[in-house]
UniProtKB/TrEMBL annotation:
Keyword ATP-binding in record: no
Protein name in the entry: Gamma-aminobutyrate permease
Stretches assigned to the Amino acid permease/ SLC12A domain: 53-490
Transmembrane intervals: 54-71, 77-96, 133-156, 168-189, 201-221, 254-274, 295-316, 342-363, 393-414, 420-443, 464-484, 490-506
Gene3D superfamilies (alphabetical): Amino acid/polyamine transporter I
UniProt source species: Bifidobacterium thermophilum RBL67
Subcellular location: Cell membrane
A GO CC term attached to the entry: plasma membrane
Signal peptide per UniProt: none
């Protein structure tokens, strides 16, 4: 692709792709909003994502594998009150998206919301956020590619086919296929995400409808063995009484209730992904607000609706951990109780889809973030990654990100390296919280800056809502210290903030001092 690639390094000096240039308003008039066309002069990406693509990308961003496989653990922690936790955390994540949406509405030529941290908090915090977020994406991508192969092996194992020895080849094939989709064109990525989301939505809706029918006909089911569960699950019935029989707001104590917030928070992780697609979306100022405003409805339908449907079929006290600490999938339980013997295969097929969707999105996002970092970098070597291909995608940045994700099977082959990797991957989730906090602070600074426009996609009561979101993210981080398995990642995250964050801030400070001395 080299012969037909276009460098954006030169364009960065005068364009707005880097996010370092304040663009948009007519000089001296902060009351007028600039057109997307005028802002796009430095945007070399193709606006190939349609409203249909973005709406389903936003839906897919709120539905991960955790809903299909991990919701059993969440229910076991707090019982029916987990629904309130999902609503509360979903509301805070909605505030995060409104903050990102307002800034992106102001300047939809930006490739990532991280640029606003750079613009309103300074290059030091911008560098910390940019590199940290890209590293987090790569680390999560490495865990997702491992998850894809694990679910793939489990799926075929339900048919008596053992593919465990070929996990490395499965990972290679999946990564190659998804990288190719990302390299073809942004429209190809959008189509892939549309169909991935359709499959996930179909399963959730089918499960909710199944639960409704079972309740209406007062369905009773016999004891049965659930794939992924130790022993035999007891007989029962479908009914709303399963929700309030023995109800307790915190059945396992208030400590477990508090810890449920971090579990639910990480289920919503990467919901901000739609904020990375804006510079490649057609008519972004119309599409983006709609996609963000519908987040609450998606939370109510796909999380709250699914959890309630599960708990009216399966009594919440029935969710018990296996000997290895794992939980059976609630989706498999519902369909199995309904008499579908192939429920496990169905659910794991959708879980493969969900994990593939997550990996596909991570490749897309990691490619755009590395591209942005390369464009902004003073390093000529790194600038070579800041180019777009003839298909108007950041091909080099995507390929480099994919190559690092491909290290996952190699790392997993060595026990000591694998243990260290698990710690770093877990710490990456903690680092995400820092990024969210910086984003909310950047939004507050934007509202007080000359860039602010009063006729944009405004976040209501921003002084209160920004502070509320920041306080919540701090609260979630504090809860990481409550359990032994999250305490290590929490400490590692703080070390990363102090060491790398401190380096970025000091580097920027001394760079500015040297520049001032040179100008004297």
């Amino acid at each position: 692709m080299t012969s037909c690639e276009h460098s954006s390094s030169a364009g960065n000096a005068s364009g707005n792709a880097s996010g370092n240039v304040k663009t948009g308003n007519v000089p001296g008039d902060s009351s007028r909003i600039a057109s997307v066309e005028s802002l796009d002069k430095g945007n070399q990406m193709e606006r190939g994502l349609t409203n249909r693509h973005v709406q389903f990308i936003a839906i897919g961003g709120t539905i991960g594998t955790g809903l299909f496989l991990g919701s059993g653990k969440s229910i076991a922690f707090t019982g029916p009150s987990i629904v309130l936790v999902y609503i509360a955390v979903g509301a805070i994540m909605f505030l995060l998206m409104r903050a990102i949406g307002e800034m992106m509405y102001r300047d939809p030529s930006q490739h990532t919301f991280i640029n606003f941290i750079d613009r309103y908090l300074g290059h030091g915090w911008g560098r910390f956020a940019g590199w940290s977020y890209w590293i987090v994406l790569v680390l999560i991508g490495m865990t997702e590619i491992t998850a894809v192969s694990t679910y793939f092996v489990t799926f075929f194992r339900t048919f008596g086919i053992e593919l465990g020895a070929w996990k490395w080849l499965i990972e290679l094939c999946f990564l190659a296929a998804l990288t190719t989709i990302n390299l073809i064109a942004v429209k190809a990525f959008g189509e892939a995400e549309f169909w991935f989301s359709m499959i996930k939505i179909t399963l959730i809706v089918a499960m909710i409808v199944t639960a409704v029918v079972m309740v209406v006909i007062h369905y009773h089911y016999p004891s049965v063995h659930i794939p992924g569960s130790d022993g035999v699950n007891p007989a029962g019935h479908a009914g709303f009484d399963n929700l309030w029989n023995g109800f307790s707001f915190a059945p396992n104590g208030w400590l477990a209730f508090l810890m449920s917030f971090q579990m639910v928070f990480f289920a919503y992780e990467m919901i901000e992904f739609v904020g990375v697609t804006v510079s490649e979306t057609q008519n972004p100022r119309k599409v983006l607000p709609k996609a963000i405003n519908e987040i609450i409805m998606r939370v109510l339908i796909f999380y709250v609706g699914a959890l309630l449907a599960i708990m009216v079929i399966v009594p919440w006290r029935s969710f018990k951990p296996n000997a290895d600490g794992s939980f059976a999938s609630p989706f498999i339980m519902v369909f199995r109780y309904a008499g579908l013997d192939w429920a496990a295969a169905l659910v794991f097929f959708v879980v493969i889809t969900a994990a593939s969707s997550a990996l596909n999105s991570l490749l897309y996002s990691a490619g755009r973030h590395l591209y942005q970092l390369a464009v902004d970098s003073p390093s000529p070597q790194l600038n070579k990654l800041g180019v777009v291909s003839s298909r108007r995608v950041p091909a080099r940045a995507i390929l480099v990100s994919a190559a690092l994700i491909l290290l996952s099977p190699i790392i997993n082959a060595f026990p000591k390296m694998s243990s260290a990797f698990v710690l770093f991957a877990s710490a990456s989730s903690a680092v995400i919280i820092f990024i969210y906090i910086l984003t909310m602070i950047a939004h507050e600074r934007y509202r007080r800056s000359p860039d602010f426009i009063a006729d944009g996609f405004l976040m209501p009561a921003y002084r209160f809502t920004d502070a509320l979101a920041i306080a919540f993210f701090v609260f979630v981080y504090v809860t990481l210290f409550l359990a032994a398995d999250t305490r290590g990642p929490a400490i590692a995250g703080l070390v990363w903030l102090l060491v790398f964050g401190g380096y970025c801030l000091l580097h920027e400070r001394y760079q500015n001092r040297d520049l001032q001395e040179a100008l004297r």
